[in-house]
Write a structure and sequence with these properties.
This protein is an alpha+beta fold and about 220 residues long. It contains five helices and 13 strands. It is globular.
């Protein structure tokens, strides 16, 4: 009986690996270089990976999307990448939950962008990149999603299970579907889960699952 349980567990892990591979989805919180010119900074909670934010390199400087949960951890992570907090020239905040803005104090030289300072659909051509902002409430009322150079989507907690939404779960689902339906998106960077690199397969996956009941719908 015990052997059957072990074999079943192995089979489930194997099938899960195949599914996530097909989706191009890395089901873990990443750190370090995760794409050309894009770095993930990972913060922990009680010793376990908890939240990450991302840096996009532009010349000798960096643009941050969110700012993590813990300044001390963030500073150590930046040191390992040989990046100074002073090199971060802008921070685009997806929402004001403490685990996404906990290290803002480190980035004294950065311009801060967030809702409602930015309006839905606003495009900023600066810092060597093009960033389009979308107001995507649901998880919170002020959630923002950012599209960089028409290819990379930084979503914060948009992909978190809508059952955890503190504002409007159905609105979160609608905004999530709208963002993933955009043409040209090659990768989706999330705050608490992995990366989606083959978005067309992910759209299909969402279409055959009930999004609101998925345990980890990313």
């Amino acid at each position: 009986m015990r052997m059957k349980r072990v074999l079943l567990a192995v089979l489930i892990l194997f099938l899960s690996a195949i599914a996530t591979s097909a989706l191009g989805y890395s089901q873990y919180i990443p750190r370090g270089r995760v794409a050309p010119g894009i770095y993930a900074i990972r913060n922990y909670n009680n010793g376990l990976p908890f939240v990450n934010f991302f840096l996009v390199q532009t010349g000798q400087s960096y643009i941050a999307f969110d700012a993590g949960s813990d300044s001390a951890q963030t500073e150590i992570a930046l040191q390992r990448l040989d990046i100074s907090p002073d090199d971060v020239i802008a921070v685009f905040v997806t929402h004001d939950d403490a685990d996404h803005i906990g290290s803002l104090e480190l980035f004294a030289n950065a311009n801060i962008y967030k809702w409602p300072m930015m309006y839905d659909g606003e495009i900023i051509e600066a810092y060597g990149v093009s960033i389009q902002a979308f107001h995507t409430p649901g998880h919170t009322s002020g959630c923002m999603t950012y599209l960089v150079d028409g290819r990379h989507l930084f979503v914060g907690d948009l992909m978190v299970n809508p059952n955890f939404a503190r504002y409007d779960s159905q609105l979160q689902i609608a905004n999530r579907e709208m963002m993933l339906a955009m043409d040209g998106v090659e990768s989706v960077f999330t705050g608490h889960f992995g990366l989606v690199r083959r978005v067309e397969f992910f759209r299909w996956w969402l279409g055959v699952h009930t999004i609101s009941t998925c345990e980890n719908p990313v």
